[in-house]
Specification:
single chain, 235 residues, alpha+beta, two-stranded antiparallel sheet, 5 helices, 10 strands, elongated
């Protein structure tokens, strides 16, 4: 209706407008959320590809080897003496590490962290969100025992480099992500909410393979034969 030359709305008209806005918001919110999730998933895949490029570059100057995973025993108040995956790659790429994980929440380059981890209620692990598969890349001492060097695992010792996962979006207790996971445990026992590879990257677990390619794997429904083929070294 018109009043004093100004447009006035009845209560019913205002309620209709509010209802329309609420409906549009309800439709838009899931779309925005989906787009955001997809964008973060793409960034996670990009981060893993950067890690894969570091692995390839490191291997090119170290007899085609992949660094071992971390040994926390190296942090007993002494300078770290053992090579491990994340720090070795970061320093090799020219990053100045400089801080122990005990004093810095994110001491590594951004590519080691997963944008799909929102930190609620638990933060990302200081050493990263893409866990190293210890079944393929063992600790430094075991690496020395098996391959004669702590420099890393020879790619030549890994059958089907395009079919073995060395790093994946993992999780562990007390953290919303992980720098490490037990590939053998996952292969034998399957998916868990609290350990191992996690489908947080738009429904799949972003995973880096030995040959450098990245896939999002359906770890929830993956059968045992496939888990063993991807996450365990061949006998």
């Amino acid at each position: 209706m018109f009043s004093g030359g100004n447009i006035a709305f009845t209560l019913i008209e205002l309620l209709v407008v509010i209802a329309i806005i609420a409906i549009l918001a309800a439709i838009a919110f899931p779309i925005i959320k989906s787009v955001t999730r997809t964008a973060k998933s793409a960034e996670a895949v990009s981060n893993l590809r950067q890690i894969g490029a570091m692995v390839a570059s490191y291997g090119g100057e170290n007899n085609n080897r992949i660094p071992c995973y971390i040994d926390w025993g190296a942090y007993g108040g002494k300078p770290p003496a053992l090579l491990f995956f994340q720090r070795t790659l970061a320093e090799y790429a020219g990053y100045k590490y400089g801080q122990s994980p005990r004093t810095a929440m994110r001491p590594l380059p951004d590519c080691f962290y997963d944008p799909c981890v929102d930190g609620n209620p638990l933060p990302q692990h200081p050493m990263g969100a893409f866990g190293v598969n210890a079944a393929i890349l063992p600790g430094a001492d075991e690496c020395l025992l098996r391959f004669g060097s702590k420099v890393g695992v020879p790619v030549s010792s890994i059958s089907r480099p395009n079919g073995k996962v060395i790093c994946s979006s993992a999780v562990e207790g007390n953290w919303s992500s992980s720098w490490y996971f037990d590939g053998k445990g996952f292969a034998e026992n399957g998916y868990s909410l609290t350990t191992g590879p996690q489908p947080r990257n738009a429904g799949g677990a972003a995973s880096l393979f030995v040959d450098g390619h990245v896939e999002k794997l359906n770890v929830i429904n993956m059968d045992q034969a496939t888990r063993r083929r991807y996450f365990l070294p061949d006998p």
